Known about the structure:
Blueprint: E1 4-7, E2 14-18, E3 21-26, E4 37-42, E5 48-52, E6 56-60, E7 63-66, E8 77-80, E9 86-89, E10 91-99, E11 102-117, E12 123-127, E13 132-137, E14 140-144, E15 155-160, E16 166-170, E17 174-179, E18 182-187, H1 190-202
Antiparallel strand pairs: 1-2, 2-3, 4-5, 5-6, 6-7, 8-9, 9-10, 10-11, 11-12, 12-13, 13-14, 15-16, 16-17, 17-18
Amino acid sequence: ANDYFAVDVANPGALRDAPAIPAEHFDHSAGLTSNECYGILQDREGNIWIGTGLGLDRFQRSTFTAFTDVSLRSFPALSAGPDGAVWMGSWGNPLFRIKDGKTTSFGPKRGWGPTYCDRNEVVWGYDYWLSELWKLQGGDFARVEVPPILKGAVVQSLTGDGAGGLLASFEHKGVWHLLNEQWENIEPSRSEERRVGKECRSR
């Protein structure tokens, strides 16, 4: 229960550490699809999922399982669904849902980036190709409208607020909260803070 996994973009592979055993290092020779590891997720069953530059791996009982039916061109975004499924968004692919060893694709190929599945099994994803935020609900995709100030802004990360709302970090625009189709800026970007600070000092 006290084990932890970590990935470090400056070092190849993944690290597993636990109080009772020496640290273990896993790389391509240990079964990883690539030594370049960026995305990491622990699902509700305790499995460790690692997204690499060449694929997706699951760590279970000290082994990695490569999902050869998922072909990746870039580092994937991973999110755990409330039913134990793992959702994955990646560049040049449809959205993938992985559950009980079965992989299901949704929609056309897109430039998927940050991906998040909420407690109602609504999947939110940012499309780099179109610079748009989308959601998948009941098998249907719908574009998510954003305030004019966010048009074209790159989404850096997506997560939930614990109460049914969505939190999205937009590059140079700060953190925004979406609830009941209403957006609210809850944390300004550092560049915006610096701009406001300069205006205050000039007065």
